[in-house]
Amino acid sequence: MPADKMDNQQSDPPVDFDSLRALIQAKHAAFPKRLSQVARYLVDNPDEIALGSVSSIAEAAQVTPSTVMRFAQHLGYDGFTALQEIFRRNIREKLSLRDDVKGWKSAEKGRFFPNHILNQTIDVCCNALSGLTNMVATIEIDGAVEILSRARCVFFHGSRSTFPMTVALQQALTGAGIRCTLSMDLTGGDDVLALATNEDAVIFISRSAHAEREFLASSLAAKGVPIIAIVDSSLNPYTDFASISFKLGRPGDANFLMPTLAIALTEVLVARLRQTRA
Known about the structure:
This protein is an alpha/beta fold. The chain is built from 13 helices and 5 strands. The chain has a 5-stranded parallel beta sheet, sandwiched between helices. Strand 3, helix 12 and strand 4 form a beta-alpha-beta unit. The N and C termini lie far apart (about 55 Å).
């Protein structure tokens, strides 16, 4: 059987982007490697799917064009064009909403022009924070708090792009009385993580736009080490090995949004830890 072959083909394909994304997220763990690569690229890069060709999408996802077409067929579509239309409809809807917002801002431009960049940035942050309740569930918060409260030591692993939020979370938990160790790619993090046992916990903070080293998470999970993943995509490789995953924002969001959301999540976790102890 070919590597990309799946046992079952979806008989009733989704007709809108949200349903399609939910289906991919529900099934991606069962996809063979090549189809999983396509799934991750589709969910993380919806605009590129809407505007690209089979060849350009295949090249970006590092698969063959036939794999992209086969992925569409496995989801129940007649071909890639039918799948792509879902993404095109989604981008048309986003552009329509953007035009509405642009019209509102134009009407207000005269009043706020001296500070319009500041106001726009604040608006983006406020909108992102208001959506945090849809990104994070109470059961996930309580699950993370349980892992953190019983851990002998919490290891933090981040990369250059996630350094600010990794350090912020480490400092916050240290201030709450949690023993922590920082592990970064640029400081030989592999050797530090090798010390973790099933009595500890590891937090991976990761952006999907950067190459990940999921073998670290795989080896830790094999030892029974509890893992918490803070990512910007539910298809990030680290989520496959995590006990608890927090998806903050979307790939391609403004660079400051994920750190903003991560700091807010940190405050929630610390407050919940203190409540639990009280």
